[in-house]
Amino acid sequence: MDRDYLKVGVITSTHGVHGEVKVYPTTDEPERFRDLKTVTLYLNGKEKQVTVDSVKFFKKQVILGFEEIKDMDSAYALRNSEIRIPRSEGIELGENEFFIGDIIGLTVIDESGKELGKVSDIITTAANDVYEVKRTDGSALMIPAIHDCILSVDTESGVIKVHLLPGLEDL
Fold this sequence. Notes:
Binds ribosomal protein uS19. Residues 102-165 form the Ribosome maturation factor RimM PRC barrel domain. One of its GO terms (cellular component) is ribosome. Keywords: Chaperone, Cytoplasm, Ribosome biogenesis, rRNA processing. The strands form 2 sheets. Strands 1-2-5-4-3-6 form a 6-stranded antiparallel β-barrel. The chain is 5% helix and 47% strand. The chain is mainly beta. It has 2 domains: 5-88, RimM (Elongation Factor Tu (Ef-tu), domain 3); 100-170, PRC-barrel domain (SH3 type barrels).
């Protein structure tokens, strides 16, 4: 994904007959959708900028209406589109907080400097996030994103230094 943008949601389906869409939020702050004026929809390498004209919440989804989309067929064509915003409109992060898109793809090394692989996914659990690290042999290593394991994250150099707790490599 383009590092100038942040993905804040994915359109999952239509809602009603007037062009609204259901969005699965990929942000920890779904309320942020209330403040969005325009967003970029991204699907199959194509971008389309649209103006947000309504925001509602239903269960764990956000229902958006766009000025440019006023019928169900047009809304249906947007399914699976990523909703992106400029990085400059992202929420302010606290110390040791990162956007998921900035972590995926980083190289993971252990305390001795040995390369373990690259972060391929981040799994959110009730207790903490877990970094899935794809090793060069194709296997996966799961590392909990906790202070005992994550020693440093340097997005500029593209490296995460970790301490592997006993037994983590055996899972």
